[in-house]
Fold this protein.
Amino acid sequence: MSNYPERAAQLMRRIEALAAISEEPGVVTRTFGTPAFLQGRALVQQWMQQASLDVRVDSIGNLRARLRSPRPGAQTFVIGSHIDTVVNAGKFDGPLGVLLGLDLLEQLAACGTELPFHLELLAFSDEEGVRFHTTYLGSKVVTGAFEPELLQRTDAAGITLAEAIRTMGGDPAQLAADALPATEWLGYFEAHIEQGPVLWERQVPVALVTAIAGQRRVELTFRGMAGHAGTVPMDMRQDALAGAAEFVLLAERFAREHGRSLVATVGKLHLPHSASNVIPGEVVGSLDLRSPDEAELAAAYQQLQAQTEALCQRRGLTLHWQPVQQTAPVACCTEMNSLLGQAIAAAGHEVIGLVSGAGHDAVPISQVAPATMLFVRCYRGISHNPLENVEPADLAAALQVAEQFLALLLTQPQPR
Ligand code: GLV
Ligand code: MN
Ligand code: MN
């Protein structure tokens, strides 16, 4: 094996080719189930088929490619990440992990290596949760944690998730059948860009992930009274946008006062029926709150909700606080991290363990299988931004470490 620079160059070409497929020209946007998403997935599927992998699309739209073990009763080790993106995304968040995994399986297939366990490469269809405002649709199906009530969620056009699945050619009634039973899981590995600045600052190409922060997402509706911008005196207004603005600054101040472990983001504000000469009567916004410490996260969530209710009361607004997502912090598997640490050291790099503030498919998977993640340095830690970038040398380093990790895994004693 080896020849990492050449393989990194091919990996980069594939990342670029996938990034060229987008809902909007000139930017990278491929949200779950859109024509661009399907076109991008078809390209990845074609690469998987060319690598002689056994490929199928499951009912939530995940691409699943297998290398089978001849061993009776063999378990399955999954390598994966996602191929959906945020809006105006970078090229590497998700595709790096899928296409790095493809390279690893391609090498094994080409060598005809006899495996002690099945290897499955997963290109998850929805990790970002942009379209239906809920994350991990793809990995929840694979772990059997998909909640059927999600099928009634609607996107901005009023299309339900159930309808979106059918439009993609899937069958919502088959979702449970696509889960890999808990007894079949041997483990999970995901390579991903760090999306933070630590590796960039420390000038190290890769790190292992020790834990992933928990998160809570809320949809908030501030309701006041729409009115004439020229006639309603300032002290008689119930301006929903002024209330939402106060909430944005409250959330920022609140998280800053907690120190570095808690982060709060208001990423969306929508003003229905807005006009420059109308006092805003309604604002719909989002809150994304994260911490690696569940107790801190739970307490912060309650305090922030209470303070937001108080500010709305003071301003004569009503508040609708609708929780839309909750995931607890998770720890990566220490045994697998020890193998990954050995692989990092063998490649001559300092072994650094990081907590991920970003969510990953490893979160739902860690509920059914030992999970480990490899972070790859990205330019100044920038992500969810078109400036996202990874140097080819760092892709080569990640390939080398991931391949060594897999080699160590392949030589571990297997359960009978
Ligand atoms: C996924 O990118 C997240 O929001 O953490
Ligand atoms: Mn992302
Ligand atoms: Mn991601």
The CA atoms of residues 202 and 377 lie 10 Å apart. The pocket of manganese (II) ion (ligand 3) is lined by residues 82, 93-94, 127, 192, 360 (CB under 6 Å). The longest helix spans residues 294-314.
